[in-house]
Amino acid sequence: MTDKKYSEIHHTDKNNYDYITITNDENKVRIYTLKNGLKLFLAQNFDAPRIQTFIPVRTGSNNDPSDNTGLAHYLEHMMFKGTSKIGTQNWEKEKVLLEQISDLYEKHKAEQNPEIKKEIYKKIDEISQEASQYAIANEYDKAISSLGATGTNAHTWFDETVYKNNIPNNELEKWLKIEKERFSEMVLRLFHTELESVYEEFNRAQDNDSRLVNYELMDALFPTHPNGQQTTLGNPEHLKNPSMKAIHKYFDEYYVPNNYAMVLVGDLDFEETVVLIDKYFGTIPYKELPKKDVIIEKPQVEIVERTVKSPTTPRIQLAWRTDSYGTKEAMLADVTANILSNRGEAGLLDLNINQTQKMLWAQAYSLGLKQYGYFSVVAVPKENQTLQEAKEMILEQLELVKKGDFPDWMLPAIINDFKLQRLKGLETAEGLATNLYDTYIKGKTWEEELSEMDEYASFTKQDVIDFANDFFKDNYVIINKEKGVNDKLLRVENPGITPVKINREAQSVFLQEILNDKTEDIQPEFIDYKKEIKTDLAKSKKLNFVKNKYNELAQVHFIFPLGSDHDRDLGISTQILQYLGTDQFSPEDLKKEFFKIGVTNDFKTTPDQLTISLSGLESNLEKGISLLQHWMSDVKPDQEIYNHFVETLLENREAVKKDKNRIMTALTTYTKLGKKSRFLDIISKERLENTRVEEFTNRMKKLFGFPYQIFFYGKDFEGFKNYIPNYITDEAFQIPEPKKYPEQETTGTVYFTDYDMVQMEMSKIGKGQNVNPENFGKINVFNEYFGRGLSSIVFQEIRESKSLAYSAYVSYAPNSELNHPDYITTYIGTQPDKLQIAVDTMTELMNELPEVPAQFENAKNAALKQIASTRITRTNIFFNTLRLKKLGIDYDFRKDIYRQIENLKFNDLKEFYQTSIKPIRFNTAIIGKKENLNMNAVDEMGSFEEVSLEEIFGY
Question: How much is the pTM?
Answer without folding.
Answer: 0.95
